[in-house]
Amino acid sequence: MSSSNFSTLPGDLLLEVTSCLSSRTDILNLALSSKHLFASTCPVLYAHVHLGTAEQCQRTLSMLRSSPNVARHVQKLYIRFSSASSDYMVDINGIAISALLRELAPRLDALHTFIWDADEIPQCDDMWFALRMSCPRLRTLGTCYGSVIPSQRSHLLEFKNLRGFSLTLKYGYYTHHSDDFQDALPFDGRLWDMLIRRSPDLEELHVLGGPLILDGTVHPLCNARWPLLHSLSLGDLMLDWSSGPGPMSSKRPFIAFLEAHPRLRFFRTSRTALNPHILPSLDPSALPQLTHFAGSLEHLQALAPSHPQITHLAIEEPLIIRDLAPLLVAGVLQNLRCLTELRIAFIFHSSYESGNLIRNLVSTCPGLTTLEITCARRSSFKVDTLAKSVSCLPRLRHLRLTLVPAATGDSLRVCASHVVQAIPRLHSFSLTFISASLPLSLTPVDFGLYEETGNYVIRTDEHGLPHSLSCTERRPALRLPFTLPSIPIPLAVPLLAFSPFTSSFPPKERRMRIQRFLLNLRPGTSKHSGLGLILERSTAGDEVRVLSVLVALSGLALWGFFA
Length: 563
Hints:
Layout: H1 3-7, H2 11-19, H3 24-31, H4 35-45, E1 48-51, H5 54-66, H6 68-71, E2 76-79, H7 92-104, E3 113-116, H8 126-134, E4 140-145, E5 164-169, H9 171-177, H10 187-196, E6 204-207, E7 231-234, H11 253-259, E8 266-268, E9 292-295, H12 297-303, E10 312-315, E11 319-320, H13 325-333, E12 341-347, H14 356-364, E13 370-379, H15 383-390, E14 398-404, H16 412-422, E15 428-433, E16 452-460, E17 466-476, E18 512-520, H17 531-535, H18 539-562
Parallel strand pairs: 1-2, 2-3, 3-4, 4-5, 5-6, 6-7, 7-8, 8-9, 9-10, 10-12, 11-12, 12-13, 13-14, 14-15
Antiparallel strand pairs: 15-16, 16-17, 17-18
Helix pairs in contact: 2-4, 3-4, 5-7, 7-8, 13-14, 15-16
């Protein structure tokens, strides 16, 4: 079909075609083909807007403010940026972006999810009022606490009938409020009043921390009852800090809370929120629909025998490798017969070349389709050896490896080729090399603290055999004597449940150098030379182009000298 005939298709049919495209780049290229296609694909292209830097936030929000025909299609808006100053009151990024959102709110007719993931709460608190009054469909909110917490009169705490809420604690909170008790934070009572009394139909709740509670006090969350709740994520939140176990016949408040919510499908917890030793008191028939779980290995030991229906598992506390560690992990995972996705991390204190660990892991989870493995502190496995160990998983389609490379190890490109040769049925995979001295508390996605990383998508021919790799590799940029503006590149590295920060200063994102190229996997193909090599989109092409520019500049300098 020609482009002219394609543009004449009805709008609803164009939306169906656009919704089948998996890549947002493909959707954008289609939208830029003509004005008619742009207008027809706007509902899909701008349905989910994710902004990751201050510059991107200001440019995109200004564009949406001046283009109401585009802004009215935004359904989910995710705001994330770094503060320009450590002083909350003079942070120009937060002031400008929150003011833009306040002006943009009347144009966001379809907005139903808004997430504010900055270092501090919005400087312009009227932004929450504008969102509440101008966005009647807004039912899911996300915010964060930093060095400044909301006041008792904050408009954030005036929402009602929410379906989802998330709260994240940033670095500033731990440095200014880590020792505060609950009764010293009067806003906390209004927060839970909004969630419990004014949002009875809450479906998702993610609270990744909170103030301390006094001894013998039960957190308000334990007394809440949400009949529709299906997702619950709790970080370092003290729910029931009791000095004793109490009578044998009585249930702990949080255990009773879990038994009162049979619709829970996603549950993530920490040792602070739920002591693994009291989890066996949970009724075996409770949580019958639980399919996604994230917690420690001790939590899983108590939960797995009565919940074999779990399909997605994340063991967030890294496992220290000892002689019995492979058998312990395998013994727990063998109860989960329906497991399809697994995320696990290991700590090695010495070089570990035995394949028993991965072989036991693979043999107990034959149905895995997604596997994420992190190996920290010491060089553990070679990438080709590990890939061969997991190649016996017949349904594996997505793989993510994060490990400490060997001193004489292969490059990312060579390792990627080994992975494809060992597991040709993969759809995508990623490789990340980290430093042996990297503290595990600094591994989250907020920072690019890795030596190098690569994301790879396998392209196949008509027979389903891989013929090339679409590669995106990131490495720290070279340090220059002057400062250039940087674009933070987030990396999806498994989140490890340790203390949020171990240093007295928040870690900084590093400037990253990005390379995108296509790697040919078929041997014997012709290679570019001459002009073709200069135009080639690869590392060799980049080097030839740089060399050509240097030669040209040297020639101009010599010509100017002798002239």
